[in-house]
Design the sequence.
C-alpha cells in the first residue's frame, strides 16, 4: 500500500495533481488507514499512469473522465486520440515550415508582380527608406482593399513609366529630408497638383474607397518626416481649391 506521496513520486506527478484528479472524479479516493492517511493499491498506480499519459497527449481532463472503462472502449478512444494527435502534429510541422521560410525571407506577403516592382525601384533611383515604406503600405492596401489593390498598383506602376511622373515620385522621395520651410516644397506641390489633374481629372482611381485607411497611411507618412507633412498639407490645400478627390497610395498622394 502506498501513501499519496509515494504514489505521486512513482508516477512522476505532484501530490497536488493527484488531489486534482480526485476532485475531478478521474481517480477514485482510496480508503484511509487508522491514522487518516490515504493508502493506494497497485491498481491506483495503473490508473494514474493511464491518466497521466492521456493528459500529456493533450487530452482534456473532462474527456479523460468520459472515456470508457472497458479495454475495448479505451482502445477505440485512444485510436481517435491518436488520429487527432497525428493531425495536430502535421499542422504544427506545417506551421514550423512556414515560420522557417518566413525567417529566411522565402515567403512573400505581396503578389509577385508587386515584389518585382519593388525590386526594380533601386535602379530608378529610389532610396531604401522609400522602398521599405512602399512595401509596408502595399501590404496594408492589399490587406484592407483587396478588391482595389490590383487597380491601384497597376496605376502606380504605369505612372513610373512616364519620365516626368517618375521624377515627381523621386522628388517626393527626397523631400523627406527637406526643411518644412524649404521653398522647393511649394514648387513640388504645385507640380504634383498639376500632374494629378492632367492625369485623372478630379476623380482618381479608388477615390470612392473608405477614406479611413488612406488617412491612416498618409498620417503614417507625415509622422516620419516634417518635409513630407508640409508637402501633404500644401497638396491638400491646392487639391481642395480645385475639387480634386484626395486619395493616398504607396508613394504618397496620388498626384505624381
Sequence:
Amino acid at each position: 500500500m502506498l501513501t499519496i506521496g509515494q504514489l505521486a513520486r512513482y508516477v512522476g506527478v505532484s501530490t497536488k495533481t493527484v488531489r486534482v484528479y480526485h476532485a475531478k472524479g478521474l481517480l477514485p479516493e482510496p480508503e484511509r488507514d487508522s491514522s487518516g492517511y490515504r493508502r493506494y493499491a497497485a491498481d491506483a498506480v495503473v490508473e494514474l499512469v493511464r491518466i497521466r499519459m492521456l493528459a500529456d497527449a493533450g487530452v482534456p481532463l473532462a474527456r479523460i473522465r468520459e472515456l470508457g472503462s472497458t479495454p475495448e472502449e479505451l482502445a477505440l478512444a485512444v485510436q481517435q486520440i491518436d488520429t487527432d494527435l497525428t493531425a495536430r502534429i502535421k499542422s504544427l510541422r506545417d506551421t514550423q515550415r512556414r515560420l522557417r521560410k518566413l525567417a529566411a525571407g522565402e515567403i512573400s506577403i505581396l503578389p509577385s508582380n508587386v515584389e518585382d516592382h519593388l525590386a526594380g525601384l533601386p535602379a530608378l533611383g529610389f532610396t531604401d527608406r522609400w522602398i521599405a515604406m512602399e512595401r509596408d503600405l502595399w501590404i496594408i492596401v492589399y490587406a484592407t482593399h483587396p478588391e482595389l489593390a490590383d487597380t491601384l498598383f497597376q496605376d502606380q506602376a504605369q505612372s513610373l513609366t512616364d519620365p516626368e511622373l517618375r521624377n515627381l515620385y523621386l522628388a517626393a522621395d527626397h523631400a523627406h529630408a527637406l526643411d518644412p520651410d524649404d521653398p522647393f516644397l511649394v514648387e513640388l506641390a504645385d507640380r504634383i497638383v498639376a500632374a494629378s489633374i492632367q492625369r485623372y481629372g478630379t476623380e482618381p482611381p479608388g477615390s470612392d474607397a473608405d477614406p479611413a485607411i488612406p488617412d491612416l497611411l498618409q498620417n503614417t507618412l507625415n509622422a516620419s518626416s516634417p518635409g513630407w507633412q508640409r508637402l501633404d498639407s500644401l497638396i491638400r490645400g491646392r487639391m481642395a481649391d480645385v475639387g480634386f478627390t484626395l486619395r493616398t497610395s504607396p508613394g504618397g498622394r496620388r498626384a505624381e
Summary: The longest helix spans residues 71-103. The radius of gyration is 33 Å. Confidence is low (pLDDT under 50) at residues 247-256.
